[in-house]
Amino acid sequence: MARPAGKVEKNAEQTPTAARRGIQSIEVGFRILDVIRKTGRPMPLKEIADACELTVPNVHYYLVSFQKVGVVQQHADTGHYGLGPYALRLGLAALEQFDVFTTARPIMAEVAAITGHTVFLGVWGNKGPTIVYRVEGSRSRPLLELRVGSVLPLLSSALGRNFLAHLPEASTRELLEQEMASSVPEGHGGAAGNSYTPRDVQAIRDEVRKHRLSRCRDALLPHFTSLSAPIFDMLGEMKAAITLMGPVGAIDDDLQSDTARLLSEKARSISATAGWVEPQAR
């Protein structure tokens, strides 16, 4: 029996073209929400419309629907529109569901493939900076000294310096005092540079915060260098870091190098997945 003319064998929603096209009205709606989010305060209707480059009636149509589901609320005293209670619940749910380990793994594999060197994921554990995952590069030997579960120092590792710079000082104070007390002052049989003064510590913090990237050479392992980029959550708190490590000379560890930029960009992409927004873009 012949099929009726014009009948489509496959549901249009299953076609690749339809999947790519998406639903334009949803995209427009989230454009409106993003304007309210970025402004950081309740806004009058016309200001929202101007920022979105849409007509006032069109924006009002969306805002009425958003109010019904609680994503947007209108303030009774001013008539301005701000994010509603359901938007807050969505944000909190996203924060709870974010898994830095799952998000970071494919990105770390990409960095290791591009650079050819080992990449670590580190978090702040109960004993300090701790490696929780690693991806081997193809160009350098396996770093057997640094296994999953290894706890690294604050001052003589790129991962540790990242936490030193970005965590509250109260969180790192005890470990920092232990490391400074055990360092060997110059002229007492220790190698030059093993002793850290409070001024040295502050200089490390300042440099890491300035570049949002830490570097450590010939410290954790002889003849090795490392770069570490922080991962932030939606509240701007550092949750983890990805660290690239390889032989001195094999990695361009200049903080303005292509390698450093790659690592920073990948860490920012993980942070963005967690809801973090670049300070200059707020």
From TrEMBL:
Residues 86-276 form the IclR-ED domain. SMART domains: HTH_ICLR. Keywords: DNA-binding, Transcription, Transcription regulation. The keyword Cytoplasm does not apply. GO terms for biological process: negative regulation of DNA-templated transcription. InterPro entries: GAF-like_dom_sf, HTH_MetabolicPath_Reg, Tscrpt_reg_IclR_C, Tscrpt_reg_IclR_N, WH-like_DNA-bd_sf, WH_DNA-bd_sf. Residues 23-85 form the HTH iclR-type domain. One of its GO terms (molecular function) is DNA-binding transcription factor activity. It comes from the Bacteria. This is IclR family transcriptional regulator. It comes from Achromobacter veterisilvae.
